[in-house]
Amino acid sequence: MADNRTHLFEYFPGNFVWSQQVNSMIDMANWGASSMGEIDQVGRKLRGREGDGEAWFTEWDAMAHDQQRKAEAAAAANHALTAGTYYLHAGVYHLYAERFIPPCDRKRESYRKAMHCFEEGYKRRFPNITRVEVPYEGGKTLPAFFMKAPGEGKKPTVVCFDGLDSSKEMSILYIGVELANRGYHTLAIDGPGQGEALRLRNIPSRYDYEVPGTAAFDCVAARPDVDAQRIGVMAFSLGGYYAPRMAAFEKRYAACVAWGAHWDYHAIWLKRRKHMEAGGTNTSSAMFQLPWVMGTPDMDSAIKKIENFKLEGIADKIECPILIVHGENDTIVPVEIAHQLNNAVTRSRKKTFKVFTTADGGSEHCHGDNRIVGANYVADWVTDNL
Fold first, then answer.
1. Strand extents, DSSP E, the chain
2. pTM, to two decimals
């Protein structure tokens, strides 16, 4: 995990984690949800302040509010599409503003603002996105967005979970749009430990992710516009553990995508913790993120909880077609991990293993250096295999 391994465009040279967040925001311009010019305006104010989470929040929060004011003015003038664009931009900047703020009321409020702006943006720019509540255990529900593909009749559908620090507000765009254009519905869901489920409902992650996986399957299979025989599951980053586990135990899923592979998440974090405590920035999250996601009081208990986050003895239970996609220059999860998962999947009816190179583009963690290339590849694989 040395700094010289990164192939990511580093807006903040030497600070991978800040640069990674900037790249994620830049990529959202592909779906009309950000602007390189706006991002650069903020980035210039943050130069020389790398690592200052308060400065990061202040500047991105200011840009988010500026975009939100423009959205409200456009809406008042009955310029719905313009308002939708500004709302989507505001949603992205509100969402990323809270990234380095530890759990607190201010962090949750920033996320609430992001949710509001995204939903106002979807109404105007992506009216085929609707909000869904997925019944979950204990009388709870998991929040999700459903993006409907054009046309009538039952259609194949993909259930999409997040990773350690992503959320449904983003994934419904960068995979949902590509799938809808190919005739597939998408349910983008915040599972336990993710997005809204974590921030506003205090639902932490769990190793047995087949439980929310089954809940999501049952929800979409009951819809009259879904072909229940053609429902697939995918997930990003830490989701490279979640999705294979769901496919291994919920046999009704007809296809699986591990978008960024995992094998032994516990072993990854033992190395990552040492790297972060030594001052390294080649990581996708702050030190508070793992305990928060796992619902534990500190890092020691979080590390203990993820001892079961392993695919050994599980990956060989996957029978449906599976895509394992990874970047050869992944700075967060070395490509060797993807090879471990690939070697362990022995019973799949059709296994595809794709490693993106520098020449391909998208060779960093979950295509953080070129997400639209990865999104199109994954969507094409889904259309060929689901």
1. 129-135, 141-147, 155-161, 185-189, 226-236, 255-259, 322-327, 351-356
2. 0.95
